Amino acid sequence: LSSGPLKGRRVLVTSGPTHEPIDPVRYIANRSSGAQGTAVARALAALGAHVVFVTGPADVPPPDGVEVVAVQTAQEMEEAVEASLPVDAAVFAAAVADWRVSSASDRKLKKTKDGLPELEFAENPDILHGVSQMKSGRPALVVGFAAETNDVIDNATAKRLRKGCDWIVANDVSPETGIMGGSENAVILIDKNGADAWPRMGKDEVARELAARIAAEITT
Ligand code: C5P
User: Fold this and answer.
1) Which of 176, 197, 209, 214 has the fewest Cβ atoms nearer than 10 Å?
2) Taken in order 70, 75, 77, 79, is the CA torsion positive or negative?
């Protein structure tokens, strides 16, 4: 099992959407399937890494051979990420909800004649930003994802600087690309030297290529 270039290395992968409760039976979510994050975790494990896989409620099952930490909310995801540290590399593929309902009701909201419920929102922690900015114990390599619909390179380059991560894996999720929820991806890897556009390929192939580059980066 654990041979390969990442044997003895510990790697974190976040994946999937988060669910932010409104009341005990309702939540706010997004359309992330967890497919790309799951593929990345599988590929890193195949190279021998100990993978801590922190996943929100995804459509696809977690890969074999990883340590699964299942969470629902962004705040739970942040706690699980902090508990996973220190790691040699961290890949943030989760689609974390930017906002949560500030005080979720502990009872199911009822229809009333007095009108519609009003939801108040609070900002969720930016987990990638927090880990990227760590002053001590920061992973040697921090990789974020960026789903963009326009000006992909410019937006993702700005995001890399804003977050403080080392690499951004950017993709164009415009509906006509069929990437969101599909089995293929066309990514642009952004690092401090610029942008590298990969040909369109399966999400599993993207994951294997990314895992190989991560292994090269943290072992040389
Ligand atoms: O800012 P934006 O959500 O576009 O950034 C996307 C990247 O940041 C992804 O790598 C995602 O996993 C990460 N992220 C996070 N915590 C958040 C929001 C995004 O880790 N609250």
Assistant:
1) 176
2) negative
